């Protein structure tokens, strides 16, 4: 037996484990656990749920502007997707501390720095999933017949970049603070900072240093007019991701030359891209903005349908057929001699925010701005770059009706009272089901009168509540019967001096009594 034992080969010397293979194995396990984490699942539901509900209920906007849609969900992605990654990654990296098993990790083949690398890699599957969701969403929007413009890949890529950044931050926090409360506090601070910077009227020097920048024009604009430094901001976010990952590895005890080099490169990229975000707007964009504001016809394509010509920026040319449906709805209830007059509908944009809080505009300034606006093309009806929300359809219908009834361009946001106000609002409301819904929504939420026209434009008008009461009664009656009455009394209804009471008599509806003199609104004729 001794001889047999002597002939048995000696056991092989144990081979050291491969930390790379172990790190990847741990990353796969932790990545799967992160995807199943309640915070991540809740974030996915909160990100996709509202839009899915709008699609299923038919309330989704069928006319999306893709250059706005690509960044409009970035703050939501930061809050729910980035927040889910932050909390789940932080809890995963703190699992040994939470379960009081830290000492057992010293017996494993994987050193702390390699375990930290595994937790950083574990965020990648969720990042890829967010990239797929973002691409799918924008692809579905782009496939709609009413979609306008084109998305910016850098804006879309920021969604998964934010998730990766917050996931890496969760791992870093786990190495710096052995408590779970720090991660939610960081999420709260980031969300408040981004939202507050977006609400402030200060220049964007602060907001572009945050992960997401809530900076938007007063309305959607053609792609040629956009000025968000999306590419530089994505590079800035990528630099932040690398810096946070390097800091997490260093906090876990990693010390080598490659880590220092990566950190130095990441710092240079972050600083350079962050500074490049503040470079002045290029000459091409400035020239395009000036052309769009002063000579829009040079950037537009026109299409004539019957007696109406529609001119739109190239990104929005697909909307002209839907504009025509609204215009035809107005003309259908107008006598033939008025409906056959040539009409031009021209799309306009405003790159200056006229709705800044605290800004006071006098009546004289409004009139001057409207006159300057109308000098571009005095006889054209203005249509904006929003569509599909009911109120946009209502506003176009109202501006068309105003020009047909009065023979004049839209005024400088003054009330239109009397029979003209009743007739214009009824023509707008009966044009299509969308204009009727938009008029009802505006009437329910407005005070003193219903506004027609985009408030970012210096032209538009409102119809006071007294006239709107008569309009509501008319819209409850068959439109064909009202149209026949309107045709018989067209001359008197369109006269400048015809009162609302007289319009009620002609159309067979009651009109509320006049309010006290001190409560009356200044009216247009």
TrEMBL record:
<feature type="transmembrane region" description="Helical">
    <location>
        <begin position="181"/>
        <end position="202"/>
    </location>
</feature>
<protein>
    <submittedName>
        <fullName>ABC transporter</fullName>
    </submittedName>
</protein>
<feature type="transmembrane region" description="Helical">
    <location>
        <begin position="156"/>
        <end position="174"/>
    </location>
</feature>
<keyword id="KW-0812">Transmembrane</keyword>
<feature type="transmembrane region" description="Helical">
    <location>
        <begin position="75"/>
        <end position="96"/>
    </location>
</feature>
<feature type="transmembrane region" description="Helical">
    <location>
        <begin position="259"/>
        <end position="279"/>
    </location>
</feature>
<feature type="transmembrane region" description="Helical">
    <location>
        <begin position="117"/>
        <end position="144"/>
    </location>
</feature>
<keyword id="KW-1133">Transmembrane helix</keyword>
<keyword id="KW-0472">Membrane</keyword>
<feature type="transmembrane region" description="Helical">
    <location>
        <begin position="234"/>
        <end position="252"/>
    </location>
</feature>
């Amino acid at each position: 037996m001794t001889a047999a034992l002597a002939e048995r080969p000696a056991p092989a010397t144990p081979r050291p484990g491969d930390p790379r293979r172990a790190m990847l194995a741990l990353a796969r396990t932790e990545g799967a656990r992160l995807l199943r984490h309640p915070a991540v699942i809740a974030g996915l539901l909160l990100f996709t749920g509202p839009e899915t509900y709008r699609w299923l209920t038919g309330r989704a906007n069928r006319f999306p502007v893709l250059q706005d849609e690509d960044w409009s969900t970035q703050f939501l992605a930061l809050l729910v997707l980035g927040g889910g990654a932050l909390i789940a990654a932080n809890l995963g990296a703190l699992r040994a501390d939470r379960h009081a098993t830290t000492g057992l990790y010293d017996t494993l083949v994987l050193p702390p720095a390699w375990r930290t690398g595994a937790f950083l890699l574990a965020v990648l599957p969720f990042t890829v999933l967010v990239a797929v969701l973002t691409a799918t969403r924008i692809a579905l929007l782009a496939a709609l017949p009413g979609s306008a413009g084109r998305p910016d890949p850098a804006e879309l890529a920021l969604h998964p970049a934010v998730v990766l950044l917050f996931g890496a931050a969760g791992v870093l926090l786990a190495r710096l603070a052995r408590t779970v409360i720090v991660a939610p506090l960081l999420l709260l601070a980031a969300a408040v900072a981004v939202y507050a910077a977006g609400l402030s009227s200060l220049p964007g020097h602060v907001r572009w240093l945050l992960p997401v920048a809530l900076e938007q024009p007063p309305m959607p604009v053609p792609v040629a007019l956009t000025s968000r430094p999306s590419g530089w901001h994505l590079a800035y976010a990528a630099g932040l991701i690398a810096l946070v990952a390097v800091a997490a590895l260093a906090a876990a005890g990693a010390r080598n030359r490659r880590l220092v080099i990566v950190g130095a490169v990441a710092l240079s990229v972050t600083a350079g891209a962050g500074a490049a975000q503040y470079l002045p707007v290029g000459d091409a964009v400035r020239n395009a903005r000036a052309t769009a504001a002063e000579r829009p016809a040079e950037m537009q394509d026109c299409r004539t349908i019957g007696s109406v010509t529609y001119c739109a920026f190239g990104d929005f040319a697909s909307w002209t057929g839907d504009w025509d449906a609204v215009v035809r709805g107005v003309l259908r209830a107008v006598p033939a001699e008025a409906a056959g007059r040539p009409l031009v509908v021209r799309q306009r944009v405003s790159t200056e925010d006229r709705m800044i809080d605290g800004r006071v505009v006098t009546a004289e300034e409004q009139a001057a701005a409207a006159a300057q606006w109308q000098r571009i093309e005095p006889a054209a009806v203005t249509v904006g770059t929003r569509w599909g929300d009911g109120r946009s359809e209502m506003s176009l219908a109202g501006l068309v009706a105003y020009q047909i009834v009065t023979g004049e361009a839209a005024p400088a946001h003054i009330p239109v009272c009397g029979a003209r106000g009743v007739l214009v609002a009824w023509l707008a409301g009966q044009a299509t089901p969308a204009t009727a819904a938009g008029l009802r929504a505006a009437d329910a939420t407005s005070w003193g009168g219903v506004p027609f026209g985009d408030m970012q434009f210096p032209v538009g008008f409102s119809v006071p509540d007294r006239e709107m009461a008569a309009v509501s009664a008319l819209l409850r009656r068959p439109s064909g019967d009202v149209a026949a009455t309107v045709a018989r009394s067209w001359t008197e209804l369109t006269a400048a001096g015809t009162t609302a009471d007289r319009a009620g008599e002609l159309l067979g509806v009651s009109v509320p009594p006049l309010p006290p003199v001190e409560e009356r609104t200044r009216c247009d004729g």
